[in-house]
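DM between two lab members

TW: hey, do you still have the Rieske domain-containing protein entry open?
JB: yeah, one sec
JB: this one, 99 aa:
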Amino acid sequence: MCRKADVPSESVIQVCPKEVEDGLAVYHVEGKFYATEDLCTHGMVALSGGDLQGTTIFCPLHGGAFDICTGDALEKPCTVPLKTYRVIEEGDALFGLID
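TW: and the structure you got?
JB:
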């Protein structure tokens, strides 16, 4: 998926593994890594361009929000949860378990 060093602390980046059509958002929060689908479930925009506050990502288009740990939609207009992925750490590498 990517290297740990690619994801700055308290930040989010987009990665585009070939197994995922619209890419993944990979987050680094308080020393832990998380991954979700990158496309907002409300509008066709990459969440990796949004504002990350703790474990909440805010959509840059309409300001809706999601919990990056659970994928739950937290603020309207977003109502459909995000798909989340388990992140496996091996040395400096991060791998996302994709169904």
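TW: got it. Strands lie at 2-3, 11-15, 24-29, 32-37, 51-53, 56-58, 65-67, 73-75, 84-90, 93-97. The first strand starts at residue 2 and ends at 3.
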